[in-house]
Fold:
Amino acid sequence: MTLLDPAPVDTASALSRAADGVRLDVDDAAALLSATGADLDRLLEIAGAMRDAGGEASSRPGVITYSRKVFIPLTTLCRDRCHYCVFVDTPGQLLKKQKPVYMSAEQVLAVARQGAALGCKEALLTLGDRPEDRWPEARAWLDEHGHASTLDYVGAMARLITAETGLLAHLNPGVMSADELRMLRPTAPSMGMMLETTSRRLFEEPGQVHYGSPDKDPALRLGVIEDAGRERVPFTTGILVGIGETLRDRAESLVALRGAQERHGHVQEVIVQNFRAKPRTAMQGAPDAELLEYVAAVAVARLVMGPLMRIQVPPNLSDPAEFELLVRAGADDWGGVSPLTADHVNPERPWPHIDELAERTAALGYRLEERLTAHPPYLREPDEWLDAAMRAPVAALMDPETGWAAESPNPHTSAEPTRIRAQKSVGSAEAGGFGDHAGRFDIRRIAEAAASDPLSLDDAEWVALLEATGDDLDALTATADDVRRYTVGEAVTLVVNRNLTSTGFRRAGSDAPDEFDLDDVEAIAADAWSLGATELCVQGLLPATEDPDAYVEIARAAKVGAPGIHLHAYRPQDVRDLADRGGHGLDGALAALREAGVDTVPGTGVKVLSERVRALVAPGDLEIDAWIDGITAAHRAGFRSTSVLFYGHVETAAERIAHLRALRAIQSETSGFTEFVPIPLPGPAGGVPLVAGRAPSDEHRAMVAVSRLALSGSIPHVQIPWTRVGRDAAAVLLTAGGDDLGGTLLDGRIKPAAGIESGLELPMRDAAAIATRLFRPFRLRTTDYRTPAAR
Structure:
């Protein structure tokens, strides 16, 4: 949302001055920010050329950088009241969510250790401004834990993270005094605080976005940036585009940041961040920052700040199709991207996968390079820019030739890591053994160890967790839910979808309710799309009497009916049928399905990854080795998939653990799984408890919690199968580590009985109500956990 104001300088004159390398003033910048059409193209051309010249001059030609990080939201209490923020909670909201006032040291280390294991080198500590000044609960917690202030606790956690994991902290705790900057400098190589805007109107006028937020006084924030320069702190700052500021406000903000950089040389990067409206905020109805205005702001930031400044654009706040414009505009840094944690400030905007980001960057003609929290020019002058306490930790992770992140692993994770080992109360147990495991283990300690380092537990310890009861089970589920909260975040997600069971296909047509032909497929897909579905899920073996190439024809027909729908189709067993009966071979079958429009594949068609179990309960399923070959081949062919475990029949606890370990091993090789679904077998043929007499709800809680802990840092999402457990139980399981409710399972108006689980639907409003009961946000997602495009 932008207010226009007249520019005293015409755009053509400002473009000419920019092309000549003249130092731009506020009037020039304001004129350039209004560029459209051919003027905008010329603006991007000049800005991109300046970025490329800066890369050549600083020996990093053709490079766009990023930092591999974990996001640690140390507290969500804050004394400010910004009108666009969903990060902040009140103490009452924390109580309802059963969320701590501050993350504990154990919770912080659990996230940091997992991040280190995934190759992260940055721990971003983000929090609200001085919550103890507004909330007695924050003051009481700090007093109880021996900390003079929130910033004192920030420093303690930063030191702990580096000492225990080797990660380098980047501190983003809001407004700081010069003394506080000086106090924190030995704990982190870099710090940051967004300027956002110099607009006093947005701060002083009732109803504006910063009204009632003492820490958003532009003069105060500019003072912090100046103090950071005097204290020789490499500093990240930037502007927020689209919160009600005028074009001149943007221009004045950028020129103010240039002035601070020219005086002190400490501004290592300028973020140009586009406003994204959040639900449940005063600005939820405001439009997002307009794309071309945002791109112009990126280009003007480049031209104002010069060729050597890093201009950062957060990749999760723009659609991938928009990356080309951002790079044309002179951006050269994507900022921090996490393989583990959500963007807790923008939870509705998932991070791109780092491999995908590298591919997209390469497609635009640039090479993606990993950097540390501070940029190379500052790290190459450690005596000037780094406290003595930070020089050795930085050197351990830095490539001495380039100043970027070293390719060698974090020394804290290259050897056997330091672990909180779970202590057995009496005796010991052999891996895979049975009996009263929980009674012989300290379940709380094992759960804490699992949260910190899932690979540190042996099979007997995992089995003990699966068999936990009573207070131990409550402690297990609480720990798992904390891992969920601090990794994938608070949102409960759902995809709008419809099922179609390919077993019912009849080329010749049929009047049976659960049978369909190719014309029906087109109509079903079109109907689902018109009802708001973004996914059509198709699976099931074709009848032996049908031509196996019908798998491909069904996919094509679905895409004809709804070209924009995401086709989630065909289990490994179905693909194998196409490969064998159709004579394609496995790779050929997958290629044919890709060409026909299949986007992702279900990882179903297996109960437990055990031949013993398969022979007893599902002899018609694909052999275990063949299922593994099929799913890994699909991943290598570029398909992502779900993963499942059907539990509660003849399998042992040890076989469940072996299954989770096998999925994690596949994931480490292919990175192809998007989610894991622990599915209980219902009715008289299933539902066999691991612990005699344990309630079914507790069986499910234990399974969900162990799934979250065992797969954390590997498979990010744990889906609750509401069709099997019911809606009320699903809500309970979302507090045991679950974060997703699967799909709406629309029946549709065309052949509603042709989908498995027909007759069961979870409308969006009902799913949102489940999330509301848990005081958690609800978010629609796509099949691959992105944000659905507006229709």
